[in-house]
Design goal:
about 325 residues, alpha+beta, Jelly Rolls, 15-stranded antiparallel beta sheet
Length: about 325
């Protein structure tokens, strides 16, 4: 099933779009509708058309909002409402660095070659494809409008599904993954209206403009809490980026301290006094264990010496 009656023109449209942005060498914001923010290092900005994007930039859209970013190679990315997305994250052990990490929400991607993105539960690798995806928690929906895609489930059984044009993959909360030959009416009814037509390439018009985003203020713990609670391979590289906030903002520090169970690596910065006490207590326990081992070794050595001396003492007593 196709999303609109105009979709039969999509293949030609993608080729035209790719030709327009073939010279684009950086990622840029092409469209912003409604309220969307950019989190860059420790500052929040109002997302604006023409802003060039960097690695580890986070884009978040409000309800009803839409944004489009354009990546090198003519890749068009539509970002639906209530979505959290990170561009080119730095990742640790266990996760290959993807161009995009979709924490939650709506994403539409169009590319003339190979492309891919990752979510907490799913990895999507596309080939000359246009796809629409939604994810929240353990559930996901992926519709392949054109081209092909490989879906790798990252949690549970880690299943792999090969999808062709028109295929629809879905998993509900607590359910098992399914693949159908058409998208469900429920999914089609929820697809953002901006996703129902092709994504227009606009990056070329911003290629020679240097648009600076408007700063909204320093990040709070609430602004980045969702990212601090995600998988370790993604959140650990964020620690050096955001730890200055724990030193500069007592509220950030207090909230991070209250949620250490979800990101224990923040203890040193969110609760330095408690961290120092814990290290001192651990050092004392190590010293106690070492003292106990030394005492045990000394006792064993004394017992061995006594046992070795025992036969000569008996021999010198003169008793038969």
């Amino acid at each position: 099933m196709r999303l609109t009656k105009k979709s039969f023109l999509l293949g030609i449209a993608i080729l035209l779009a790719s030709s327009l942005v073939c010279a684009q060498s950086s990622s840029v914001v092409g469209i912003v509708e409604g309220s969307a923010t950019l989190i860059r290092q420790t500052t929040r900005y109002a997302l604006a058309e023409g802003v060039a994007l960097n690695e580890q930039d986070i884009i978040e859209t409000a309800p009803g909002a839409f944004a489009q970013i354009e990546l090198p190679g003519g890749v068009l990315v539509g970002i639906g409402e209530s979505t959290r997305l990170m561009l080119r994250p730095r990742v640790g052990k266990g996760l290959t660095a993807p161009p995009l990490y979709l924490l939650q929400g709506w994403l539409k991607t169009s590319s003339s070659g190979a492309f891919g993105f990752v979510s907490p539960t799913l990895e999507v690798a596309t080939q000359a494809a246009t796809t629409v995806a939604y994810t929240k928690g353990a559930q996901y929906d992926v519709f392949v409008e054109t081209g092909s895609a490989k879906l790798t489930q990252r949690d549970g059984a880690q299943t792999v599904s090969q999808l062709a044009s028109g295929d629809f993959a879905q998993r509900r909360e607590g359910g098992t993954p399914t693949v159908a030959r058409s998208a469900s009416p429920e999914f089609l009814a929820k697809v953002p209206r901006q996703f129902r037509d092709r994504l227009p390439a606009r990056g070329e018009r911003f290629a020679k403009r240097n648009v600076a985003p408007k700063a909204l203020g320093e990040i709070t713990y609430a602004d980045v809490a969702a990212w601090l609670r995600t998988e370790p391979a993604l959140r650990l590289p964020l620690l050096p980026l955001w730890r200055p906030r724990a030193a500069a903002d007592l509220t950030f520090r207090a909230e991070a301290k209250a949620n250490l169970a979800q990101h224990p690596e923040w203890e040193q910065y969110a609760d330095p006094e408690g961290y120092a006490r814990r290290l001192a207590a651990e050092a004392e326990r190590r010293r106690a264990r070492e003292a106990a081992r030394q005492a045990a070794r000394a006792a064993a050595a004394a017992a061995a010496a006594a046992a070795a001396a025992s036969p000569s003492t008996s021999a010198g007593s003169g008793k038969p």
